[in-house]
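Form 7-S
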Amino acid sequence: MGILSRLSEQRASAHPRDPVIAEWFSGGGSSVTGLSVTPDTAMRVTAVYRAVSILSQTYASLPLGVYRQLANGGKERDRAHPLDEVLTRSPNRWQTSFEWREMMSGHFALRGRCYSEIISTGGKAVAELIPLHPDRIKPFRAPDGYLAFEYTPADGPRRIILQSEMHFMHGLTVGADGITPLSPIGCCREAIALALATEEHGARLFRNGTRLGGVLKMPGRLKDDLARKDLLKSWKEAYSGVQNSGKTALLEEGMAWESLGMTNEDAQFLESRKLQNAEIARIFGVPLHMLSDLDRSTNNNIEHQGMEYVTHTVRPGAIRREECMERDLLAGSSARTHCIWFDLDGLMRGDSAARASFNGTMLQNGVFNRNEVRISEGKNPSDAPGMNDYTVQTNMAMIQLLEAINKAAGLKTEKDTTNEQA
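Output:
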């Protein structure tokens, strides 16, 4: 009996068919508000949608490649490596690299895990990467110590996929089994449920028309319902709608208009929506200004918040992705000689003045040559003489070396001048 048969028998009774159990595996569940919070319903919250879009599109747009590790500790891009084309051009037959990475990162942001089945054909260890929906996958530990994955497609029989056949990425894993990662939506469902509840409350409020702009007051009473309807109809025709805004009302028979301003409940409702934006930004590690909430942002601190986003959110995520791809996709000798790397330099750039200052410092201290600076700025290297040379300033040197430096430059030292005068 093969290992797949044994694993299939082992997992035969473990698949969650009940919709409530399936909801639990997807990282969702009911909240105190009574609303069911799942990754799909969470995306109805605009702040969640925007945060997930920012994260997934950030990783999808970063320069990515397979690099050969050099003996001197450096690395160089190996575009001829078969995996480089899969990762950067065509991971499968219907997705671009951007689309595949965006989908994988979107799954990870919402569910804390993502999966792609590795297809090996034509002598290639990795010919295609087929994304699989995380809700249809249950990881477990196989008898040999590696992981295996129970996959139930929408149409087709359940099957077992071995770790060697799966590229996967798991997030924070602190559970008792040491395998199943935490779902951000599941852990923070109450915060997202409150955002859903406030949006639903606002929608119902406007649907039911319970928010009045004002009231008409008059002494006495109208004689019947018909008179009331006629008065309201004439008022709406004269003063309702955008086209009638700003008109002067003519009131007769002691009538008076009393505007109903924002109540304390209205103010608290708006404040709670802003608070939920901050909660959602905290969950996903996205700066609040990226969710279009600029209340506490200034021109001075937005750039620093962007740098913090790269340092504390994007960089750890990039390292996680690099290591998972190296573990799953680099096979044979390539596992020892190559690495996979995201280039974060573009994200770390400041404004033009900050970049000019940084590049100038790197040039003056011999860290970069001029062509390296041109490449970092998106320009082609130049063939002009000296563009590949490293230069340093010589106006700062140890005192004991000044005499040797002056002699090498053909300059007279103080000692030479004294000897000539003697």
